[in-house]
Specification:
The chain is an alpha/beta fold. The chain is 36% helix and 18% strand. An eight-stranded mixed beta sheet has the order 3-4-6-5-7-10-8-9, sandwiched between helices.
Length: 317
Amino acid sequence: MQLLPSARALTAAAVAVATLVTGGSVAGAAPAPTRPAAAAAPDIPIANVKAHLAQLQSIATANGGNRAHGRAGYQASLDYVKAKLDAAGFTTRLQQFTASGRTGYNLIADWPGGDANKVVMAGSHLDSVTSGPGINDNGSGSSAVLETALAVARSGYQPAKHLRFAWWGAEELGLVGSRAYVNSLGSAERAKISGYLNFDMIGSPNPGYFVYDDDPTIEKTFKDYFAGLGIATEIETEGDGRSDHAPFKNAGVPVGGLFSGADYRKTSAQAAKWGGTVGQPFDRCYHSSCDTTANIDDTALDRNSDAIAYAVWELSR
């Protein structure tokens, strides 16, 4: 997540036909054909998400301790994610841009099928700051979105809407990659995106459960999921406008997302709801060298990863 400039049914049931004429049923009337119930979202294996995080950590360690825009660590991160998606059957492409004198890339992955005029997107930024490996910010979102995409492929999911996944570059320099993508779309293409879901920091070590309050349908989808777990959520305010949903929202695309907190401090009321340490930041390693694989709360990462899959399945039916 970028710094602030100044500071940051199941219901596809079949319809039974019973035509009544003068009190009796028509002889030989055949039942209407039934549609199979839409598949439920799968559980996202936390071990798989953590395996991606371990790979991103190894990449950072081998490349000067970071995965920042325009540097070898970012390129290696991009190559890792793209190879996984290509092997799973996605159609991938790279979008090139320039920021701060360095070449950057977005990675866009489309799952074949679905209504191309109704696109559900899920995305996260893949770059870190230069001061650390960026495992919570934002390896966590990137890895969970990747594993959700791979779950789509494993299940052979064929939603009614078209699914597109994205990993953004240079978010930490001011949402450069996502803005470049949105600006590259004509008005007709933007209008085809029925929703963009953003995931930036979802495994904070002193976590909160925050939901973006932008598009009401998307917001309700996430809130319903957490309500089913008995987890109270709060509206996300710390990162409002500071992550890659902002260019989409500004272009009129419905947006939503999840967040587990950055450098704001947890209140006593929040600790009473979620546990954790009162008075400490949600992520004490935010934008620091200690944002490593040790800087992840597995429970928050697991719950949020499953929530991502739930929303992707529900919103693409």
